[in-house]
Design a protein that fits this description.
By secondary structure, the protein is an alpha+beta fold. It has a single domain, classed as Sandwich (Jelly Rolls). It contains two helices and 13 strands; from the N terminus they run E-E-H-E-E-E-H-E-E-E-E-E-E-E-E. It has a seven-stranded antiparallel sheet with strand order 1-2-11-8-13-6-3, covered by helices on one side. A four-stranded antiparallel sheet has the order 7-12-9-10, with no helix packed on it. The longest helix is centred in the N-terminal third of the chain and has 14 residues. The chain is globular. Bound molecules: N-(carboxycarbonyl)-S-(naphthalen-2-ylmethyl)-L-cysteine and fe (iii) ion.
Amino acid sequence: MTQTVQKIISEHSFIMPGFATMEENTLLTTIEQIEAQAPFRQMSTPRGFKMAAQMTNCGDWGWVTDRRGYRYQQTDPETGRAWPELPDSFKQLAQKAASLCGFDGFEPDVCLINRYQPGAGMGLHQDKDEKDFSAPIVSVSLGVPAIFLFGGHERRDKPEHYLLQHGDVVVWGNHDRLRFHGIQPVKLAHHPLTGQYRYNLTFRRAF
Ligand code: MD3
Ligand code: FE
């Protein structure tokens, strides 16, 4: 018997509803451990605006932004220390999801962790700070739901809207890897495990 674990939203993009739900407790306790070593912070864009979402990272590299630009670096600019290691539980979940969507051999070297408070969102953008775009991106949503905007290859392309709920995993690769995407401002809501927050883990291969 075959079971459907994913909804196709485009040729190379898949939503796996609730795929991370069984791991919810491990994921959230692990986020707490990461946060104890590398606290969430609101970083500044190159133009000097504060990002609405709070961020931290784990893995060999971390995504950062400040006046000098967007980039990956091996140390946390707040502490000067290496980012916490990518936990095996995180890596296994990302690899399992990628492989079910046809991306075998995904070796993420970064997990960017976004934390959205009520009202925080992320404008339409492309993820293009990685060295090569052949690896997919895997994202895990936890806590309060949010509307994900799935655009095209040009900023002007009208985005489709998808509701991402607690435990949902999304996988993008190949032709869809450079699509514009964003998150609508998160509504005030309460989740039993995260309170008012929405968390998103994005697994990438930066180098
Ligand atoms: C779609 N994060 O951190 S999921 C980001 O929910 C980011 O926090 C959102 O966009 C969030 O950059 C959206 C991640 C995502 C990443 C890459 C994509 C979605 C994508 C590439 C193409 C299409
Ligand atoms: Fe993004």
